[in-house]
Amino acid sequence: MSQAPRQLKLGAFLMATGHHVAAWRHPDVPANAGLDFKHYKHLAQVAERARFDTLFVADSVAAATGDIASRMARSDHFEPLTLLSALSAVTEHIGLISTVTTSYNEPYHVARKFASLDHLSGGRAGWNLVTSDAAAEAQNFGRDEHIGHAERYSRAREFHRVVTGLWDSWADDAFTRDKASGQYYDPAKLHVLNHSGDHFKVKGPLNVARSPQGRPVIVQAGSSETGRELAAQTAEVVFTAQTSLANAQAFYSDLKGRLAKFGRTPDSLKIMPGVFVVVGETEALARQKFEAFQALVEPEVGVALLGRMLGNFDLSGYPLNGPLPELPLTDSGQQSRQKLLTELAGRENLSLAELGRKIAGGRGHYSLIGTPVQIADQLQEWFEQGAADGFNVLVPHLPGGLEDFADYIVPELQRRGLFRTEYEGSTLRENLGLEKSANQFV
Ligand SMILES: Cc1cc2nc3c(=O)[nH]c(=O)nc-3n(C[C@H](O)[C@H](O)[C@H](O)COP(=O)(O)O)c2cc1C
């Protein structure tokens, strides 16, 4: 039997007004997008029409505040699980991946909400399992200090075990709901978790039947050594920031190479680097489009974003035209992103303000600015040269940037046979080419 050709996977990474830090000030962008359901409904439908695999929403459980934060559109937005639940009712095929932190949550709540979303959407839910990278969250959850990096990962590992255990509480056919006999569920098909560990004590079972996908898809975004180990053991999709083909290839082969020791095949984990895309009919027009956003970046805003991405550092006391100061390894933020941005500053010899400006759009993700053909060439190269199974797409502004990607890049990828023209299945797992998860207790 001939195998279908391998095709790339696409995620639409939605962020209120767009990923560019100054997008909200652009005349084409609705500044109130973060709390406008019609805006998100339109984005979801554009992405679904273009046959994207999934929507992807990031999160933080703290509002950005302060002088500089008051100049960015990052302080008010929908909570992602309720947003995606609402979007599940106005879409039919597209996956719904929500970021939910393991650092400031309880696994029972998380298992229940995702199982519920999986039922609501007919099997389209995915959980981006993160360890919070925003230090400010701690103070909203009874702590003065953020949980440290190693401890966050230790908690995340156990959190995952509990959530997946709860998702497997019931056999697929446990709920007989037989009116004639009066049996609502078969007690022999129930497993009570009785988990007791370092961080959690959870009896179970879950009060939601096993969901259409068995388990919602597990996504992860940590790329440090500890993050990679956890991903290799537990993730089915990894979202990562990579700055060059060579770095992306090294990450891809490193992570895929770790799977065998957990009894997994390379195909069971899809690696989707983020890619920031600005498209125009000509390269000059694409650059012009990008520059219209860059012109709106205040240097202090770029540097504040940089400080946050480097791992929650306040860089406001350093000269804008000076070099990036030497910083200790972040314990509260993303170690992988800190490394990436520090290397970028060194490689290109950038001042603080220049680096802030450079990442104002894609926050360090690979950036492509050009024509549909130029952009498709790059995506194809990464896909075919062992750097990616697909991409999580970041656009500068919404809805325009996503409409551009759907109208210009997707058809070019389809013309090359690199992307689907119809959804393969009805669940996110089926579309991503992942197997339905077996129940560990049945
Ligand atoms: C591409 C990417 C996106 C991420 N998105 C989020 C997010 O939305 N919310 C969050 O709290 N953490 C987010 N994280 C942080 C990760 O969850 C990660 O567990 C943590 O920062 C440690 O990263 P490290 O393993 O690279 O040090 C993201 C990380 C990466 C690399």
TrEMBL record:
Q: Which UniProt keywords apply?
A: Flavoprotein, FMN, Monooxygenase, Oxidoreductase
GO molecular function terms attached to this record: monooxygenase activity; oxidoreductase activity, acting on paired donors, with incorporation or reduction of molecular oxygen
The family database entries (Pfam families) matched by this protein are listed as: Bac_luciferase (PF00296)
Q: Is Flavoprotein one of the keywords UniProt gives this record?
A: yes
**Binding-site list for FMN:** 59, 99, 149, 153, 223-224
> What InterPro entries does the database record attribute to this sequence?
Diverse_substr_monoxygenases, Luciferase-like_dom, Luciferase-like_sf, NTA_MOA
Q: Has the keyword DNA-binding been applied to this entry?
A: no
Domain Luciferase-like as annotated: residue spans? 23-387
Judging by the UniProt lineage, the source's domain of life is: Bacteria
The entry sums up its family as follows: Belongs to the NtaA/SnaA/DszA monooxygenase family.
Name-wise, this protein is LLM class flavin-dependent oxidoreductase
